[in-house]
Amino acid sequence: MPAQPVADSDVPAERTVDYSSVTLSQVIMPVHAGPGGAYAHGGEIIKLMDTAAGLAALRHCQFSVVTLRVEGINFLHPIRVGNYVEVEAKLTYTSRSTMEIQVQVTTEDVKIAKKWEALTAYFVFVALDPDGAPQEVPPLIVRNESERQLFQAGEERHNTCRIDDHYRTLCAID
Q: Which of 16, 49, 66, 125 has minimal Cβ neighbours within 10 Å of its Cβ?
């Protein structure tokens, strides 16, 4: 049986960026290391980022969510075993059923009290109804110029990417 459209009254009220922001933190242990043993495995960091982004999306819409796309993962600095990492996730844009979440990873070498940005990426999540169909999400309230600029940039990214008939993401390369 096809999913029924959700009535407007079922869509939660609009929410602010701060409402759904998430910070996760973790010490990188040997179990998180790549084959060389000294540095964090990139997949472990991406998993932590995806978890933070998914929690921010879930907080915003309060429906089941799944990762649709990840954009712009660039490791700026290596993360060593023993480093402390903080992963901050915040919504930057919402469409009808998708949410873009900016995820920033900051790393600290606690022994020398030095912090640096390790990487930033954008995760796009889609909200799903109980039947697995896209679900309308609350609008995002932007309250300041920084949030407005992030929203506009997210809208531009959203407008240059689309899903084709075979569910492949197609993004403009301009």
A: 66
Whether 1 maps to a domain, the answer reads: no
Residue 83 forms part of a structural domain: yes
Other beta carbons within 10 Å of 145: 8
Q: For residue 163, what are its two tokens?
A: 């899903």
Domain of residue 120 covers 14-171
What CATH number did the domain enclosing 62 receive?
Answer: 3.10.129.10
User: What is the amino acid identity at position 86?
Assistant: E
pLDDT in single tens digits along all 174 residues of the chain: 333 344 445 655 899 999 999 999 999 999 999 999 999 999 999 999 999 999 999 999 999 999 999 998 989 999 999 999 999 999 999 999 999 999 999 999 999 999 999 999 999 999 999 999 999 999 999 999 999 999 999 999 888 876 655 555 566 433
